[in-house]
Every structure is written in structure tokens, then in C-alpha cells.
Give the backbone structure.
Amino acid sequence: MKKVLVALLACAVSLAAHDFWLVPNAFRIATDAELVIHGQTGSSFPSSISAVTVDRVATARVLSARSNEGIIDLGVAGNSLRLRHRPTSPGQILVAVTLHPRSIPESPESFRTYLTLEGAPEALARYEREGLLPTDSIVRRYAKYAKTIVEVGESGPRVFDRVAGHPLEFIPLSDPATARAGDTIRFRMVFLGAPLPGGRGHVSVAASADSAAAYHDVPFVADTLGEFGVALVGPGVWNVRALHIVPARRGSGADWDVHWATFVWGTGQQE
């Protein structure tokens, strides 16, 4: 029975280990045109292996310079969560989605495996040094947050650096929409409203939203200000992604919290 339980827990680790991205049908649309965004779940950007169901969406919002609107047209299309919205004013918009947390019971062994498989060996080593790693079964809780930016109309105010208020969030320090292949742009990684020094994650780009997989994938480590650079090696659909694992607040119903965050944008050719 114990072996069966461990196998089931290991399976749960495998099934949970997927990023969540927002990939729009276009990064530039006309005013009053319909915007369709696909919520993609998987480990190979920007493809999706399964659809997040509508009931898992905690918040889905469109932030402009003048408004903060909820997206009410949600559904499922194939392997993707589908969001529809029709912006009525020109300017840049930020689409931000959070998914409800989920909890998974785990053995100490499967939790260590999770930390290793998800690219957090430094967290594993640090928590081991501090004597925080579990010796008995635990509850791991995870939540996911995703953002993307879209241009509406020909001109208007910018909101690329607007804070959505996600627990883990990427804030661009310059406008990704105006960057071109060959440029370097910088991001700040924020956790609970403060910069996250030493935060780790990955940057990747796909030739298009329909690409089977990213053609460029590199890790990053944030500096002491929580900042890191992204060298745009080519045009396409770009993303930054990370997870951050911390002990849960005592009495919160979980032992460990895992926060996943992504940010997606489109980059064109150097002019």
C-alpha cells in the first residue's frame, strides 16, 4: 500500500508540473476588435496539453490606463482555456489571470523530487541546510498567475509596467512591445509586492503562437534588486516564467506554497 501511495504522489507531481501561459491571437488589434486569448498549460511553450477549466479561474482581468475590467466570456477550446474580450479604447492593455490554489499531499521523497524536477535545486539545498525539509507527509499547495500585453489601436497610453497584484509577478522595466530582435530588455521579479533577489526562472521564444515548441530557452537569475535582462535573439512570441517555493504560513492548511508566474509578449524584427 505504501508503494502504491508513493507512486500516486509521484504521479501527482508529474501532472502538476506545468506552466500556465496567456497567448493572444494577436499582439496588436484594432479598437473594438475581438481579442481571443488562449490559456496554455504545459511544459513546452507555447503549446498546451490540457485545458484549464473555467471553474479554476480565480480572476481574469483586463487592465488599461483608465480601467480594470473583468473578463466574463470564458470557455474551453480544445486543449486551451479561452478568454474573449472586446477593448473599446486605444492603448496598451495588460491581461492578468490567476488560478485557484490546489493542494496535493506528498511524501518527503516526492517533495524532494518535485524541487529537483522543477529546477529548484538551490531551494532544496538551502531548506536542507536550514533543517526545513519534511520528514513526514506534507501538503503542497500551488497557484498560478499569468500576464500578457496587447496593443489596441494605433496609439494610446502604456501599461506594460502596471502591477497586477499577483503574489509572484514579472514587471517589465521598459516596454516589451517596442523592443526588437537584438535589443535587451529588463524585468523585475516581485514576490508579495517586494523585489525577489536571486529569483530563478527561464526565458524562451517560439516563432509563432502556433509553434510546437520554443526554439530558444535559457535560465536567468535575478540580481540583488530582483532584476534580470532578456536578450532578444530573434522575433517571435516570448515568455519569462518562474516558480517560487516557500514554507506556508502556519495554520493556512498547507505546509509549502508553490507560486508559478509567466509573462508573454511579442517581438518583431529589428528595424
